[in-house]
Design goal:
Elements (H helix, E strand, L loop, with lengths): L4 E3 L11 H7 L6 E2 L12 E6 L3 H16 L3 E2 L8 E6 L4 H20 L4 E5 H7 L2 H5 L5 E3 L7 H9 L4 E3 L22 E5 L1 E2 L10 H5 L3 E2 L2 H13 L4 E5 L7 E3 L8 E3 H9 L6 E5 L8 H9 L6 E3 L7 H6 L6 H14 L4 E8 L6 H14 L3 E6 L7 H5 L6 H26 L3 E9 L6 E5 L5 E5 L9 E9 L3 E7 L1
Parallel strand pairs: 3-4, 3-5, 5-6, 6-7, 7-8, 9-12, 12-15, 16-17, 17-18, 21-23
Antiparallel strand pairs: 1-18, 2-3, 10-11, 13-14, 19-20, 19-22, 20-21, 22-23
Helix pairs in contact: 9-10, 13-15
The chain binds S-adenosyl-L-homocysteine (SAH), iron/sulfur cluster and FE3-S4 cluster.
Amino acid sequence: MIGEQATLKDNSEIDNNFIKSVSQHDEARQGEALVLDTKAPADGRKLFIESYGCAMNFSDSEIVASIMGDMGFSTTPDYKEADVIFINTCSIRENAEQRVRNRLKEFSAAKTRNPGLTIGVLGCMAERLKSKFLEEEKLVDLVIGPDAYRDLPNLIGQVEDGNRAVNVLLSREETYADISPVRLNTNGISAFVSIMRGCDNMCSFCVVPFTRGRERSRDPLSIVQEATELFSQGYREVTLLGQNVDSYKWTSTESENQQMVNFANLLELVANVSPELRVRFSTSHPKDITDEVLYTMAKHENICKHIHLPVQSGNSRVLELMNRTYTREWYIDRVEAIRRIIPGCGISTDVIIGFCTETEEEHKETLSIMDYVKYDFAYMFTYSERPGTLAAKRYRDDVPEDVKKRRFNEVLSKQQECSAIRMEERIGQTCKVLIERYSKKSDQDFSGKSDQNTTVVFNADSRYKPGDYVNVLIEKCTPATLIGRIVD
Ligand code: SAH
Ligand code: SF4
Ligand code: F3S
């Protein structure tokens, strides 16, 4: 795979926990239409909603579906029969925005055929472009940012009155804690639970602080309640979502002795919902991940032994320009702590290639840190300058495209080497797998995830069904899938 970005996950078996990256790379999953299980009667108005970008966006679409469900909308997988089309957008790289614009062209053609159709742009691109969107895209009726979804009934009303509507207000408090998400496109086994919103870090390349606003944490009681409800509905895995989960922090103001809940405490609370409920989380920040979090993971069998720890670059000068606030040495220290406290823990990462002023030597340091950590998998991106970010203001995007491409390919082949080593290490081991579904390639096979978040495929056995745990002896592997058989 040669190109601007890539993942080493196997496209045929989608990794739920990294929809963000998979959806950014995997054409098959691009802009997936979300279908549900709805609150509304089937003869009511129909909503088609398509999501791009990270898991937070997919999770937000479930909030939006819930709010629209209360207004009588059911969802449809076919935008041609929809009364309302929503596209939940991502701004992280230029090509993510381009993809949305291309898709909007198709929706606009539908609107020309059916003038009663409402087209709404949601999410990060809506927030970034605000009302400019309405100027640029003449057939868009509604623009709404990630913190304004409660205003949808009002905005839909404005559109019904013949106006175009915009709300891109960011909030310091909104967490949608009281809204029960309508689970979209679900396998009934794993679900996302949003634990915080926004981001207070100012990584110089990143548009997220501008599109998602200030960081705020969600009430832990509402998180535990959501996890408990999911478990009672048959779900067996929750992924706690935030841009930087390690800075989760909630201070209860209700009792007299103020109680603080940090991410380690929250993990424990959710792990205690049931030993049969697997807990995952994403994303960890190398500057904030604490030994307390690692010890909590080690203590609870049901907290999965996998950490997504984006490195971005292996060179301290580049990291400083990126404003990541850690050095190569600090990152390595965190990896050593993970290995010491949670032996065998899977580690994955994100890498940005060709950031402003990156030299050949500095690029080699990225390759060498990959060699050192031997990531289980990685998401790799060539740097894409985003308007308004610190890097766009301060530094020149001066690494030539052909150099970025060549370095990208070097990072990609390094990761292929590392993934192969990690996959082969698992051969001969027995791992506990949560069965998620029948394999996409054959209904004779089950597909699920190992603790370390690797897809495992094995012979279906009538004694088991999706949602059950089984022990699988790993016998062989492909670049992104472990293959084995159930052992009792
Ligand atoms: N909050 C997460 C990541 C959010 S964005 C974290 O801090 O790790 C997901 C990934 O997109 C980032 O980790 C980074 O590798 C990549 N990314 C973000 N901005 C980018 C840009 N301008 N160009 C290329 N890749 C970018
Ligand atoms: Fe962006 Fe950095 Fe925040 Fe992640 S931690 S969302 S990369 S600013
Ligand atoms: Fe996510 Fe893209 Fe926004 S990665 S937070 S949807 S810019």
